[in-house]
Amino acid sequence: MRAAATLIVCAVAAILAEGSPGAEAPGLHRDGVAAQAPQERRAPVDEPAWVTPPRGSPPRADASAVVASVASSTVGRSGGRTRAGETTPQEPRPPSAAPPRFRFVNVAPEAGLTRPLLAGRPGKDHLLDSAGSGAAWLDYDRDGRLDLYLVNGWRLDGSAIAEKGRYTLYRGLPDGTFRDVTDETGVGGAGHWASGGFVADYDGDGWQDILVTTFGPVLLYRNLGNGRFEDVSERSGIGAPGWNTGAAFFDADRDGDLDLYIAAYIDTTMKEVLEARPTLSWRGLEQVAFGPFGMKGAPDRFYRNDGKGRFVDATTEAGMQDQALGFGFAVRAFDYDDDGDLDVYVANDSDPNYLYRNDGTGRFKEVGTWSGCALDGNGAAQAGMGVTVGDATGDGLTDIVVTNFSQDFSTLYRALDGGAFEDASAETGVGPTTFTPLSWGTALADLDNDGDLDLVVANGHIYPQINKHPQVIGTYEQRNLLLENAGPGAKTLFRDATAAAGPGFEEVKSSRGVAVGDYDNDGDLDLLVTHTDEPPSLLRNDSAGGAWLTLVLEGRHGLHPIGASVTVRAGGRTQRRDVAAGDSYMSTHDPRPHFGIGDANVVDEVNVRWPDGTHTVLKNVPSRQFLRVKQGP
Amino acid sequence: MRIVRHASALALGALALTLLLTPAPAAAQGAIGTPREMVAAYNALADAILATKRTEADLVRSILAATYAHGQVQLTRAQRAITAGDAAAATAATEALAADVAQLATEGDNNVAVVRKRLIEGGHHHNSAGEAQGVYDEGFVVVTKAAKAKLLDASRAIGQMGRAPKADALAAQWAIVEGVYKDLMKPAK
């Protein structure tokens, strides 16, 4: 059904400034080096960060509001002007002739992201010690700048609890730095060892709320819209005790509110965690943490939103019983069969992955095995850690990438017609490049704005003991990977671009989560990467990229409607993105759909499919702008 | 912990049995062999262990047979629906057939996978030698890796036809499944 509604399409300066409180400015597994990069400083930005054009880019859309009211929903025309004569701040470039295609710089320390992320004992005696944690981008105060939420674990000293890590909400500031607003917002947690952070407006009040999975209760923080959050965990009805990991908010039954899937890993107790000692022989060389083989999986759960702020366990009724008790880590809700409802993919460690197909009413059937995305091409279950989806191959279908253990490849499940997938890891180059490291967080994102999806993979082993034998499979600390998409028609779709991706990709840490977001609103996508036992890295994207378009969607129930998807046609290519809450490894990306469009100055068509199935279509949209699209009444 | 407790109980039992069966010192005649009663008991236990293993194989074959039979029914339903022009029924039956073939590949559904996981957790590998040689996946009893790969390919191909199944294409895929299945179900030598 297509909406015939009045649209308001805004290319605005203070994109999301309304209601901004205290705004400072508008705006058991199979097995499978480098020095700290020098930090660089970017010139301070005086105006709202997103108004500053990317270095070396042509003029972008006007920062002053241009509002176009369009009467037709099917053929709209967006407004937008370029700012004539706007100067572009230039950062000194190295004297070399051509700049590298990618350049990422870790700016976390100067940006103020300094709180370490705790991860158990140095020896990682239990799998919980080595699981690490995720991260979430959000805009909790609706000031148009991304804020960052980082959950935290514990530091253990033998069997003793040395420190319970505090979760941190960092507010994005106009100068590209962040301020710790945890205390004033009330989201520091209650001392639970946390896994992941997930953001969605679950109550439809227009403000983004936060869900935290932990080893213990699931926490739900309701955004009150006044700069504070209320802990509504108990009355939310989300029990789910145990070791919860990945999660995804999505509207399963298309009733207009967000339901929730929560994955769980192993069935264990904190007593067992604290008493754990390395008992598993690793290649006869070292004793390392035991599991997950030999441990019992914990059941995933599905909760239906009753529309009144409560979640009801509907796992069985929805057909989502975790019958195999898979060791669940990552969850992604997306419409894999393009039938208008959201399906759920779960990456399981050492077990077949799940694909729950939605029948359109919020009832599911697990179809992973016969759809071809539960096992690898050899029919073997892999050790799924993270997941990301997107049209990697450029054929219009949504592919799946799952990261796996070391000495096993990350898997690209290429989508085929008819809702099937095939393991295309080897031929696309994903497999060979990712074989050695142990991989976790991942994202398909257009990092050079050339119109195709590149692949980021965060790496780090779980056994620190392997550092005594680096010749075997490397070290606990590993380099993250950037795979550049060479575009359709290339002999090998992905090539390893890590070595030329700047100092940010020279870091060697034990990384876990990846959350993608344009934190400085300059039109390219930056990367937040979490590590074990140290602060995260914020990899600012300084790549010499192409043109871009980022959408800020405002649905009937508020900003960033989960389940909306956007298709754009530009430069002869068609691309699609969706809005999701829950991705990568226990993380949440920037909810604003971002498109790189290469040399195109104009996007031929933008087609927004709202969660209720209605569409908004815009024609001839200028590039290099944050385009706000509001759903009609 | 459970394993340790079981081991302790077994050790105590063995000790008690040994004491009962040990001849009196007066009858000592130098080194003695293992008491016949113990050997007999062990033989009986071995019979039970081997019988259990055979039973496990028979049970898994039964699971496969039931799944195969269900698949045949779904194939027939799909073909009838195609002939009758009932697209919805044809799709449903085709997808059910794909699921059956996937379950043949994985020696049962996710509920069986949990049982398999329990057995592995307890250290039981039905085909430990075959696993070491790369013939079987861990814990698998009947379905070899090679057979699994063929069945998975067939299940995906059948599933892919779900939206617009064709009788001859389904029959062709089922012929592949049938061939693999019959090979797997040949009596063990």
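The CA atoms of residues 65 and 185 of chain B lie 9 Å apart.
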